[in-house]
Amino acid sequence: MPKIITIAREYGSGGRLIAQKVADMLGLVYYDNQIIDLAAEELGFDIRTIRKASQERSSGFLYTMSGGTFQMPLNDQVFATQSKIIRHLASHDSCIIVNGCADYILEDFSQVLRVFIHAPIESRVKRVRDDYKEVHDNELKYVKSRDKKRENYYNYYTTNKWGALKNFDLTINSDFGLDEAAKIIVEMYKQL
User: Which InterPro entries match (predicted)?
Assistant: First the structure.
């Protein structure tokens, strides 16, 4: 039975960097943007369109007509396709999945360590500026807006609340160090 780690995170918390460290330490396959790329391929859209759709919840009004039938909005198609891909990957191989809704998508899988990475807002703004090398007019506002998008998306597509402790087996403040956070996740994974 494959053992899976899902990682959700606040923007700028270093969750992706931690996930990569854990993957290296455990020798696991790491999935992040590859899931979006696979969804784009399956849906027949370019990757930029799918990446944008994968970050925004559906408005519910954008049903399209194709071949005389109505299709669900692209955002909903992307979520459904990503869910199918995540479930397929988790069924076939132990891996790490960095996806905001993976904890929910795999809620009926028994061998899953659900992790949420967070950090104080000041640390996240600093990481975005210094480590991610992103430049924004108002960095604080940008980080908060990215979190708000993640929250809206998660709350729309799941029956859970984004960032709620009860959704996760482990929550880690990345200010204790990315390497230290990775080591904790590795130790918890070994307990599955």
Answer: P-loop_NTPase (IPR027417)
CA distances from 45 to 52, 67, 99 (A): 11, 17, 20
CATH 3.40.50.300 fits 4-190, yes or no: yes
Residues linked to residue 115 through DSSP beta bridges, in sequence order: 7, 170
Residue owning tokens 């925004």: 56
Helix (H, G, I), strand (E, B) or coil at 21: helix
| pTM score of the predicted model | 0.90
* Distance from the first to the final alpha carbon of the chain: 11
Q: Provide the residue type at 38 as one letter.
A: L
Q: What is the pLDDT of residues 64-118, one digit of tens each?
A: 545 555 577 888 888 999 999 999 999 999 999 999 899 999 999 999 999 999 9
Residue whose token pair is 């999945």: 97
Give me the residue spans of the domains in the chain. Answer: 4-190
